[in-house]
Amino acid sequence: MKTVIITGAGQGIGRATAEFLLNHQYAVSLWDEDSEALAEAEAALSSAHPNAQFVLCDVANEQSVQRAIKQTSKQFGRIDALVNNAAIMQEKSIDDLTFDEWNRAIGVNLTGMFLCAKYAVPHLREQHGTIISLCSTRAFQSEPDTFGYSASKGGIFALTHSLAMSLGPQVRANCISPGWIDVSGLKKGNVEPEKLRPVDHSQHPVGRVGRPDDIARMILFLLDEANDFITGQNFIVDGGMTRKMIYA
User: Fold this and answer.
1) Which residues contact 69 (CB under 8 A, 6 or more apart)?
2) How many whole angstroms separate alpha carbon 83 and alpha carbon 132?
3) 3-243 domain in CATH 1.10.260.40?
4) Which residues pair with 178 in a beta bridge?
5) Which residues sit opposite 131 in a β-bridge?
6) Is 26 a catalytic residue?
7) What is each CA distance from 149 to 4, 17, 142, 161, in whole angstroms?
8) Residues 6 or more apart whose Cβ sits within 8 Å of residue 195
9) N or C, which end of the chain is more exposed by having fewer CB within 10 Å?
10) 185, 193 contact by CB (below 8 A)
11) Domain extent listing, the chain
12) pLDDT tens readout for residues 176-215
């Protein structure tokens, strides 16, 4: 059975993707630094999915990543894919954003991708595996005051094609740029889903806000060995919003 690591898997897109892949006969190692979110994911998934593993890991910490890789390899005996999903966002003006906050965003979102790739690669080479990283449409366009998030996502786009050129042909690397994906019902604490307005849906060319399974299906596609001619690419999954010209 193929083994996939998903970082930031305690909540949101990561958790939804973990459950989706478990239902498609993958073993999944769910990594998260938030112990509460990870415990909730374990409570929700472990009884129905014996091939799920739950690992506490701060992807911005080298020793933590090394330990998590060893835990995953020890339990499953192989690592076939890495899904770099862990990310944080601060929405603060440049006057209020501290240097430490900036460094933390870059550390989790971008350095974390590098560290996880670095220590997963020896295992991925053995399996001719793949790296899939969650970029964002914010790598290419922005709302105000998302400095660290936008900058790190731009870095993920560039690091993806660098990995693809450096690790091929043994390992493929691609990234996915989600737009608005409603994960409000997949947050720790059993938070009630956000009530979306008709305008939230209608502003998308496809007529709806995105769902976590939209991203999970794209990840499943890229995991499939039948699609092994694809590497170094970014796939925008945003309901067409980045192609929409908006006039007030």
Assistant:
1) 79, 119, 120, 123
2) 5
3) no
4) 237
5) 82, 173
6) no
7) 25, 21, 10, 19
8) none
9) C
10) yes
11) 3-243
12) 999 999 999 888 877 778 899 999 999 999 999 999 999 9
How far apart CA 34 and CA 7 sit, in angstroms, is 11
Q: What three-state secondary structure class fits 103?
A: helix
C-alpha radius of gyration, the chain, whole number: 17
Sign, CA dihedral 117-91-242-240, equals positive
- Identified catalytic residue from 26, 119, 149, 247: 149
Q: What is the pLDDT of residue 92?
A: 97
**Residues of the chain with pLDDT > 70: what percent?**
100
Which letter does DSSP use for residue 2 in this model? -
**Residues ≥6 apart with Cβ < 8 Å to 104:** 60, 88, 148
String of DSSP letters for 227-239: GTT--S-EEEEST
Provide the 3-class DSSP secondary structure of residue 157: helix
| Beta-ladder partners of 53 | 29
Looking up tokens 């999954």 gives: 237
Give the closest residue to 172 by CA, choosing from 110, 237, 87, 235.
235
In angstroms, the CA 123 to CA 69 distance is: 9
Residue with token string 């010209």? 245
Sequence letter at residue 38: L
Each residue of 41-53: b (16+ CB within 10 Å) or e? beeebeeebeebb
The low-confidence residues of the chain, meaning pLDDT below 50, are: none
Residue 213: Cβ within 10 Å count: 15
- In terms of pTM, does the model score above 0.90? yes
> Taking the alpha carbons of 74, 156, 234, 199 in that order, is the dihedral positive or negative?
positive
